[in-house]
Structures are given as structure tokens and as C-alpha cells.
Design the sequence.
């Protein structure tokens, strides 16, 4: 009986020792080692014989890391995400699943965090996924991962990510630049957006802000544009892509796929054909662009697009905010453009402008491009709330000619104006009319005024 009791105690203490050792092992073995063990077991299943099986199972655990000097980061995600490059892991559970559609963005050159966010150096899951307080850049949810494509591939169509082009289009057409600077061009009433994608605003915050600025930013002076959910999402994608991150040269070589297709899109978007013609098709304000690529060096053409003033003093060609690859794409298009293709572009437009309307058209483009639209509306209707300004909102520009001479209007645009207070002891209204003389040339200001006047004319005709 005594012996049996002793035996019983012996077994019990061995068991509890095992439990303690087991618990200690659990605590001291990082999770990634366990994932690697599971993974080699998974791999071993596919091995044909016992010897190779044993060899696979004997793989020692180690931290996998990629140094990405060009991207200024070190990623260790593949320490757990072990099957990303192994197509046989297509149906494996996370973190072992094969990564579809990586294309040329292989882990050894790109790592993971450039697209996903997260904390590359960490080897604990919660830390790596960035779900920790001090880390400002958690994993993007699945819905927004593709916004990251725009951090390297700028402006144009990234295949499979139409949101990026749509977001950019909205940005340029809705007058965001009236209040925000982007790459040096724009107003200062709202924050500079050149680094918005690096400022760690959560996508969800941005999207809500676009739907109702006041919902996340109380008392915001930013107008409610009444965007649809899709539009808000497209703008969010575009914002997330604005990082101006200094990517190494390899990563910035393919900022966009600068082919003629993209160039054609810019050519159409920027309405180059409103001034130019190709083999006689189009307008005669600017020169025929057929064969222009053969007539000038690439450097010369690049300069013409960056700063027409410099190439042709007194040039009436607007300076466009086009990055290097967009300019390359335009040149790729101009190298192959045909009169027939331009005819096709023109037939998509409702009407062809007469040369007399071209200055007005350029003014209309400036009005959108420099962001007047953001405060005064696409139809000049005004109406953006401006608490404690007389009238309580940004004025419509449809009745200027009733109150002002054209010279007075030119002066307001040049010098700006702070609206008179409704209640003199109240706070100043958030929105004022910025001074444009340092942003726009006199030529641009005159064109904008011509455009405004053309709109007044229509109003008078209607009476
Ligand atoms: C310690 C192991 C570990 C590390 C390190 C790790 N992950 Fe994970 N990851 C997991 C596991 C396990 C899952 C499966 C889902 C879960 O358990 O949360 C997962 C899921 C994911 C998912 C799917 C979405 C989700 O949240 O479920 C993404 C995306 C992801 N990881 C990206 C990354 C990136 C990027 C890194 C590097 C910064 C990384 N992971 C580092 C273990 C890890
Ligand atoms: C070029 C950008 C890019 C890189 C680099 C990249 N991914 Fe992804 N990843 C994506 C995209 C885009 C998706 C979403 C695909 C979809 O919508 O189904 C995705 C999906 C995933 C998922 C599934 C997410 C889910 O919620 O189902 C995991 C896990 C994942 N990636 C892990 C990684 C890991 C680990 C690495 C590094 C080895 C990595 N990715 C590198 C773009 C990238
Ligand atoms: C870190 C910068 C970076 C990010 C982020 C990035 N790419 Fe790329 N992409 C590149 C580079 C560099 C190449 C050229 C790779 C090569 O050929 O070696 C490339 C090539 C491509 C190509 C051409 C592929 C081919 O067949 O030649 C496509 C399409 C593409 N990327 C789409 C995407 C998409 C979609 C995303 C988002 C899921 C994305 N890229 C994210 C840098 C990036
Ligand atoms: C009438 C001026 C005005 C116009 C037009 C305007 N914004 Fe704003 N925006 C602001 C002000 C003021 C803020 C700061 C207050 C806030 O967060 O709402 C702001 C904030 C933002 C923010 C948040 C920045 C941050 O990280 O805090 C984003 C993003 C933004 N605007 C994008 C846009 C876009 C895109 C457009 C065009 C569709 C636009 N804005 C048009 C005035 C404007
Ligand atoms: C940040 C918002 C904002 C932007 C951007 C803006 N404006 Fe204004 N604008 C105003 C406000 C506010 C007033 C009213 C000033 C006042 O009441 O004295 C105004 C007044 C005017 C007036 C005089 C109208 C009147 O009835 O008194 C003209 C003309 C005008 N803006 C043209 C423009 C043009 C052209 C642009 C683009 C180059 C532009 N605005 C951009 C806010 C803006
Ligand atoms: C408002 C009218 C106008 C618009 C819009 C315009 N241009 Fe021009 N462009 C001109 C004029 C005028 C010239 C002649 C030189 C000068 O005055 O700068 C010119 C010259 C050029 C030249 C040099 C041609 C040569 O043979 O010397 C090129 C190339 C060019 N433009 C391309 C473009 C492209 C591409 C776009 C659209 C992104 C564009 N232009 C939009 C008016 C315009």
C-alpha cells in the first residue's frame, strides 16, 4: 500500500514537472518558432521518402529578413509568412499561404510593408501587424492595400486600381488646390497634402472625412462635397499614395508604365488639342505636334512642358504640374500620334472650341486647376458655408458684373480679400479670398477673369 502511494506520488510529480517545463518552453519559445515547426511539418508531408522528410524536418528555426536599403526598411514578415513564394501552399492556412499576383514584386526585392504597412522588424504577430499603441502604421485592411501601389506607380492607370486615377481626377477637378498645396501648387487654408499618405491618417478616417468633414474634424472649414462612397474611397486611395517617399532608384524607375496609352490619356485630360493640332486636325493656336518628337531633343521637349515661359518667353502655353514620367508618357504618345487618332479624341468632345474661346477655355482650366472651384463651386455658384462672414457663405461669382468693373475683379483676384465680419465681436470666418498674384501670372489672372466674364455674359443674355 505504501509503495503504491509512493509510486503514485512519483508519477504525479513527474507529470507536474513536465507541465512546468512545457509551460516554460511555451513561454520561452517565440511563436514564430512554432510557426516554422508547423510549416516544415507541412512541407515534409509533400516529401517522397523518409530521408528527405527527415531532412526537411531538421531545418533549424531562424529569423528570415530582407534588407531593403532602397526602401529604407528591414522586413521580417516571412519569418512567419513562410509560403508566400511557394505555389503549392495555395490552399494553406495563414500565415503559410502562397501570395497570388505579386508579379515582379518579389519578397527579396520588395519585402511586405511597402504595400501592407505594419512593422517590418518585429517578430511577434501583434507588433508586426502594428496593432500596438506606439506604432502608427498598422496593416492596411484588405480593402485599402491596393492604395499602396500608388506610392511607387504615380498618376496613371495602375492596372487593377482604377481608384487611384479616379481620386486624382477628382482632386484636380473639385478645386482641392484652392485650400491645399500639393507638390508646391495650391492654397494654404487647409494642410499641405504632399505627404498625406505618410501622415498615418487611417484610411477609415480619411474616408469619413471626405463624406462629412465635420464628422471627424469638428468645425472644419472644408466644404462637404457630397461625394458618393465610391468617390470618397477613390480620394482616400489617392491620399494614401501621397508620400513623396524617397524610394531608391530601382523602385522609382517604373513610377508609371509610361507608355503612349497613358500619354494619350494626359493629352486628352489636359486638353492639349484645344490649342494644338496634329497634321492639321485640331486648333492652330500652338504648333502642329505631328513629328515634334523628331524636331527637338527630349531635354528640350521636357523643358517646354515644365516651363514654357523659359523656352518661349511670353508663351501662352500653361505650365502643367506633370511629373517626369507623365512627361515621358506624353512624349511617347506624341511620337506615335496620328491625325486620325486626334480626330477620334475630338469626336468624344461635345464641341470644338473656336480660337476666340481658347483663352476662356484656358481660364476655365486655371479656375479648376488652381482650386477656385473648391470655394466658389464648379458652376461658380458659391455657397460653401463660411460662418460669421457677411452672407454666411462664399459668394457666387455669377453676378460680378452687377457690382464690379473688370479691373476691380482683377484686383480682388490679385490681392485677395478678407470678408467683413457679420458679428464684429465673433471669430474671424475660416475662409477668405487668397491673394493669387504670387501663384498665378498676370496672364493667367486675365484669362480667369475673361472666363468669369464669359459666365456673366450668359447670365445677362438670359434676362
Ligand atoms: C509571429 C508571426 C507573424 C509575423 C512576424 C507576421 N505575421 Fe502576418 N499573420 C500571422 C498569422 C498567424 C496570421 C493569420 C491571421 C491571424 O492569426 O491574425 C497573419 C495574417 C496576416 C495578414 C492577413 C490579414 C489579417 O490581419 O488577418 C496579413 C496581410 C499579414 N499577416 C501581413 C503581415 C506583414 C506585412 C508582416 C510583417 C510586417 C507580418 N504579417 C508578420 C503571423 C505573423
Ligand atoms: C506589391 C504589393 C504587395 C507586396 C509587396 C506584398 N503584398 Fe500581400 N497583398 C497585396 C495585395 C494587393 C493584397 C490583396 C489581394 C486581394 O485583394 O485579394 C495582398 C494580400 C495579402 C494577404 C491576404 C490578406 C487577406 O486579408 O486575405 C496576405 C496574408 C499578404 N498579402 C501577405 C503579404 C506578405 C507576408 C508579404 C511579404 C512577403 C506581402 N504580402 C507582400 C499586395 C502586396
Ligand atoms: C515599392 C514600389 C512599388 C510598389 C509599392 C508597387 N510596385 Fe509595381 N513595380 C515596381 C517596380 C520597380 C516594377 C518593375 C519591376 C521589375 O521589372 O523588376 C514594377 C512593375 C509593375 C508592373 C509591370 C509588371 C510587368 O509585367 O512588367 C505592374 C503592372 C505593377 N508593377 C503593378 C503594381 C500594383 C498593382 C501594385 C500594388 C498592388 C504595385 N505595382 C506596387 C514598383 C512598385
Ligand atoms: C474651402 C477650403 C477647402 C477645400 C476646397 C478643400 N479642403 Fe480639405 N481641408 C480644409 C481644411 C480647413 C482642413 C483642416 C480641417 C479638417 O481636418 O477638416 C482640411 C483637411 C483635409 C484633409 C485632412 C488632412 C489631415 O491629415 O489633417 C484632407 C485629406 C483634405 N482636406 C483633402 C481635401 C481634398 C481631397 C479636397 C478636394 C476634394 C479638399 N480637401 C478641399 C479645407 C479645404
Ligand atoms: C479658400 C477659398 C477661396 C478660394 C480658393 C478662392 N476664393 Fe474667391 N473668394 C473667397 C471668399 C471667402 C470671397 C469673399 C470675400 C469677401 O467677402 O470680401 C471671395 C471673393 C471672390 C471674388 C469677389 C466676389 C464678390 O462678390 O465679392 C472673386 C472675383 C473671386 N473670389 C474669384 C476667385 C478666383 C478667380 C479664385 C481662383 C483663382 C478664387 N476666387 C479662389 C474664397 C475663395
Ligand atoms: C493655351 C494653349 C495651349 C495649350 C493648352 C497647350 N499648348 Fe503647347 N504650345 C502652345 C503654344 C502657343 C506653343 C508655341 C510656343 C509657345 O508659345 O510656348 C506651344 C508649344 C508646344 C510645344 C513645342 C512645339 C514646337 O514645335 O516648338 C509642345 C511639344 C507642346 N506645346 C505640347 C503641349 C502639350 C503636350 C500640351 C498639353 C499637356 C500643350 N502643349 C498644351 C499653346 C498651348
Sequence:
Amino acid at each position: 500500500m505504501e509503495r503504491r502511494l509512493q509510486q503514485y506520488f512519483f508519477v504525479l510529480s513527474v507529470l507536474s514537472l513536465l507541465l512546468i517545463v512545457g509551460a516554460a518552453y511555451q513561454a520561452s519559445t517565440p511563436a514564430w518558432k512554432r510557426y516554422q515547426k508547423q510549416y516544415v511539418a507541412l512541407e515534409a508531408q509533400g516529401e517522397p521518402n523518409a530521408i528527405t522528410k527527415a531532412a526537411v524536418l531538421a531545418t533549424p528555426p531562424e529569423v528570415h529578413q530582407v534588407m531593403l536599403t532602397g526602401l529604407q526598411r528591414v522586413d521580417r514578415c516571412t519569418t512567419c509568412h513562410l509560403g508566400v513564394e511557394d505555389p503549392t501552399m495555395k490552399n494553406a492556412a495563414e500565415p503559410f499561404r502562397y501570395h497570388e499576383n505579386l508579379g515582379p514584386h518579389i519578397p527579396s526585392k520588395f519585402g511586405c510593408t511597402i504595400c501592407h504597412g505594419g512593422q517590418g522588424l518585429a517578430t511577434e504577430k501583434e507588433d508586426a501587424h502594428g496593432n500596438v499603441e506606439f506604432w502608427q502604421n498598422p496593416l492596411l485592411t484588405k480593402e485599402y492595400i491596393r492604395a499602396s501601389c500608388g506610392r511607387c506607380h504615380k498618376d496613371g492607370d495602375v492596372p487593377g486600381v482604377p481608384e487611384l486615377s479616379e481620386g486624382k481626377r477628382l482632386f484636380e477637378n473639385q478645386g482641392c488646390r484652392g485650400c491645399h498645396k500639393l507638390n508646391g501648387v495650391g492654397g494654404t487654408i487647409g494642410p499641405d497634402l504632399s505627404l498625406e499618405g505618410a501622415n498615418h491618417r487611417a484610411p477609415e478616417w480619411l474616408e469619413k472625412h471626405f463624406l462629412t468633414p465635420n464628422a471627424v474634424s469638428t468645425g472644419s472649414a472644408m466644404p462637404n462635397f457630397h461625394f458618393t462612397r465610391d468617390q470618397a474611397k477613390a480620394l482616400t486611395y489617392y491620399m494614401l499614395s501621397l508620400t513623396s517617399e524617397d524610394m531608391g532608384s530601382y523602385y522609382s524607375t517604373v513610377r508609371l508604365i509610361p507608355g503612349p496609352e497613358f500619354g494619350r490619356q494626359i493629352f486628352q485630360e489636359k486638353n492639349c488639342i484645344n490649342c494644338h493640332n496634329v497634321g492639321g486636325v485640331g486648333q492652330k493656336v500652338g504648333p502642329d505636334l505631328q513629328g515634334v518628337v523628331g524636331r527637338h531633343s527630349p531635354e528640350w521637349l521636357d523643358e517646354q512642358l515644365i516651363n514654357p515661359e523659359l523656352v518661349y518667353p511670353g508663351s501662352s502655353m500653361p505650365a502643367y504640374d506633370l511629373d517626369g514620367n507623365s512627361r515621358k508618357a506624353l512624349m511617347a504618345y506624341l511620337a506615335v500620334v496620328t491625325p486620325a487618332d486626334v480626330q477620334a479624341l475630338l469626336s468624344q468632345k461635345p464641341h470644338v472650341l473656336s480660337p476666340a474661346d481658347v483663352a476662356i477655355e484656358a481660364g476655365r482650366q486655371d479656375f479648376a486647376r488652381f482650386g477656385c472651384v473648391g470655394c466658389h463651386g464648379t458652376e461658380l455658384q458659391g455657397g460653401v458655408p463660411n460662418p460669421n462672414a457677411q452672407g454666411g457663405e462664399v459668394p457666387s461669382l455669377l453676378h460680378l458684373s452687377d457690382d464690379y468693373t473688370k479691373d476691380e475683379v482683377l484686383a480682388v483676384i490679385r490681392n485677395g480679400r478678407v470678408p467683413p465680419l457679420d458679428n464684429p465681436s465673433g471669430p474671424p470666418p475660416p475662409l477668405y479670398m487668397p491673394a493669387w498674384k504670387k501663384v498665378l501670372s498676370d496672364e493667367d489672372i486675365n484669362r480667369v477673369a475673361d472666363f468669369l466674364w464669359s459666365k456673366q455674359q450668359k447670365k445677362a443674355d438670359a434676362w
About this structure: The longest strand covers residues 66-68. The longest helix spans residues 2-28.
